[in-house]
Predict the structure.
Amino acid sequence: MKNTLIVAGNWKMNKSPKECVDLADRITSLLSDIKGIQIILSPPFTGLNEIQLKSPFYKAAQNCYHKESGAYTGEISLNMIKDCGATHIIVGHSERRSIFNEENDFINHKVLAAIKNEIVPILCIGESLHERENGLTEKTLYEQLMGGLKGLSILEKIVVAYEPVWAIGTGVSANKDQVEQAHNYIRKILNSIDNKHYTPILYGGSVKPDNSNELINITEVGGFLVGGASLDADSFVSIVNEMRKIRRN
Ligand code: PGA
């Protein structure tokens, strides 16, 4: 049951610390009544500590290293992220999988470490165009999901994001049927691991104000992970406003 809808803005490698503060301030000031919706803003690390948010606005980091501390030049631990006020972390994003060669085992370490540190992982999974065209969508989703969640039998504080790689940053989102099919399949796998707790499944990939209404009405879509359209306060807020129309009170 989706009681609360989630909309997360992934700002990727954009915005200076000051621009992050300005964008967060503008979004929070434009949104007054958002009962039933959880908003998560994910700035780059340099903006994470700078933006100040109060519930139901939350902060997510875009990456971490799973070790607690030590000689890991360039890395940031979950404790550090937590000290900056982050409640969530994006893991397994396709850009990290494809550009930084992150594989399911490595992603699984991050998921487990996040849970240990009481940070909610937003585990991203999704097939490439090649995989879709070759009938490998379900196989890919299964492997990424089972690989990312390895070792877990209780899925209590986890969010999954279905992000078909071919829809990210392309302006072409997956269509209603494709999203519905993928989300139903993901729900089936999640239920086979733990059918007592509800894990929200977000959709991500070219979500915009003009396609958000159709997509949010799909039963298993529990919200969105928004990239490009989250960099502009007005378009991000328009997406949230579309969600408000179906929010659960
Ligand atoms: P997009 O990005 O909305 O720009 O397609 C989504 C994402 O990468 O999470």
